[in-house]
């Protein structure tokens, strides 16, 4: 639970903040299937249907991989490492016939059991809800009794660790992790049962509140863990929110329809792009509308943005329930709603605009661009990457920083 921006390594030089869009594609991958995760570049998608987890790629299409998909009795959600080679989630432990936090290794086509906290609730001992970008940390919850669970994480080479609870007798869960797994986000049950968003760094918990009081559960975080997003609650007028270490919580809103409830479900690796939804309540979430928020442009309706970019979406279809965002901020997966209220799994990919350092437009930034810049040194136009009116050392620095060879 991913962002790329033009001139990303040169944001200060180019005056660019947030992501830009330049067309893209929309793909439906099945009726009543749930694409739930995207890897860093959006090339691998993971999700589930009524009987199995699946992996989807443009080359291979839809591939069932087994596991124990979410039901009323089985927790967890599909999640992906940055390279797309590990799928986190939940599977059946054949030694106990109970479901357990696991990950699927695509290299070996096998499910690997991660562990539990020593108890079970029904047929579940633990469940996986997130995975770090490096694939070495799987997070979720483990049961410590039939009615109480603690957030826990499995780390490669270290096994399973409980995050515990700061409220006696109450549960916690970890929903997401930073790229290296050292920062964790999720929720802490209060004494009243309210699930408050929280962040753990070095196993030290920070409860997340806004100006009106405690906020809802955290869904995910940026690659470095400094930006967290999550669910709106009554204390912030049910608006999706974004929290930063330096600035605290800010609402993402307002909702498109008065009274609708919102949630931010995922954030890009650089923290500058967020996707989420607003929905009527208590109607199903697929009766709502997806949004995308960027640091540069604020909140926009995702369906409207896609159409404005010339992306072909069937008439009457609404991008209703986004569930993840790729690390580079350009691929969104989730469920759409047709004019007849049928539900389809979708993959929406936004194209990346050409880099301003690609002076000849050939898709590479190399010696040809450098030659063009130097040939116009001191002039204007070609090579003026920062649009200052003159080609100078700032532009040369920008070109070299974006060099692809």
- Residue ranges: pLDDT <50 for 5 or more in a row? 1-18
Order of strands, main sheet, comes to 1-30-29-28
User: Biggest sheet, open or closed, and with what strands and sense?
Assistant: 4 strands, antiparallel
Query: What characteristic shape results from the CA principal axes?
Result: globular
Proportion of residues in helical segments: under 10%
**What is the count of helical runs?**
4
Q: Could you give the distance between the termini?
A: 32 Å
Strand content: 35-45%
| Mean pLDDT level | 92
Q: What's the total number of strands?
A: 30
Provide the gyration radius in Å. 22 Å
Structural class: mainly beta
Detailed description of the structure:
With 405 residues, this protein is mainly beta. It is 7% helix and 42% strand. The chain contains four helices and 30 strands. It has helices at 11-14, 302-308, 367-375, 393-401, and strands at residues 24-31, 34-38, 45-48, 53-57, 61-66, 79-80, 86-93, 98-105, 110-115, 126-131, 137-143, 149-155, 159-164, 172-177, 183-189, 195-201, 204-207, 209-210, 213-214, 218-221, 227-230, 240-244, 248-252, 261-267, 273-279, 289-294, 298-301, 318-325, 331-337, 343-350. Strands 1-30-29-28 form a four-stranded antiparallel beta sheet, covered by helices on one side. A hairpin with a 5-residue loop joins strand 20 (218-221) and strand 21 (227-230). Helix 3 runs antiparallel to helix 4 (393-401). The protein is globular and about 75 Å long.
